[in-house]
Design a protein that fits this description.
Two copies of one chain form a homodimer.
Chain A: H1 6-17, H2 24-31, H3 40-52, E1 56-61, E2 65-70, E3 76-81, E4 87-91, E5 105-116, H4 118-121
Parallel strand pairs in A: 3-5
Antiparallel strand pairs in A: 1-2, 3-4
Chain A binds a DNA duplex (30 and 30 nucleotides) through residues 1-8, 24, 37-42, 44-46, 48, 65-66.
Chain lengths: 125, 125
DNA sequence: TCGCTAATGCGAATGCATTTGCATAAATGT
DNA sequence: ACATTTATGCAAATGCATTCGCATTAGCGA
């Protein structure tokens, strides 16, 4: 059966601590603050497990590549800051009703915003 | 100087004929109807040239990967049909004004819709 | 605490899209 | 039509994210 390893617990802690979508490199970097020896392959293995468990969701970002975020959150979209290169979760939905012309059956959608985040724009200190 | 090869002209014709974002494989397939011997490397080389010329634009689709589309078109978004697996261009913008919370400076955005296209849903015959 | 075996760390290996080297083919100026 | 030289087709090579093999480590039940 599955064992509770310190590395997987560290990875979960990383996601609890940073409430935003994270890439493999970020998980590795932040995870190493908990388990210094944390290895990339281990990160990959555990991300896969956590996705299978339904604890994480994999998303494909047009400029950041594969990101992982916690499941169970309300519908939202993503913001990518060109300064700090981080992805943020934006609450709510910014899609208009008449998104597609007649004939197109819209079942799902994804919105990616690009710009500068509060902490990089200096609005938040 | 640059020569006007039949293969590049074929590739341009493909984009003029199909007014939708195309992947490398699609360009190759459609292009071969004009130049039977068309090679994948040639497609890559010419797509790069056409992007440099500003005649094409490269977009990164979350599920279809890299696509190319003609430049100069009005602002629009993309629809991906899960039946025929093609990408379509949707005219207009479906983004609400208040897309991001205060503090986020939105400079650009991309919207991807998923569902079934008219020709696959049977609405259009 | 001991024993079993899943999980880790490491480096090598894979799969994939994309690029490149090179001999040959085909545009273009003359 | 010829000579020049860019572009092609082909296959091998690259770069990248991701996976795997294997010896070792470390959870966890007894």
């Amino acid at each position: 059966m599955r064992r509770n390893t310190t590395q997987r617990m560290a990875i979960e802690k990383v996601f609890k601590q940073h409430e935003r979508p994270l890439g493999v490199d970020e998980v590795l970097e932040y995870g190493r603050s908990f388990v210094e020896s944390l290895n990339q392959a281990t990160v990959y293995r555990n991300l896969k497990l956590l996705v299978e468990d339904g604890w994480l969701k994999r998303i494909s970002h047009p400029s950041l590549g594969t990101l992982y975020e916690r499941t169970g959150r309300a519908h939202h979209h993503h913001f990518h800051c060109r300064e700090c290169n981080r992805a943020f979760e934006l609450p709510g939905c910014a899609l208009k009703e008449d998104a597609a012309p007649d004939g197109f059956i819209v079942e799902d959608h994804e919105i990616f915003l690009f710009g500068v985040c509060p902490s990089c724009s200096g609005v938040a200190e």
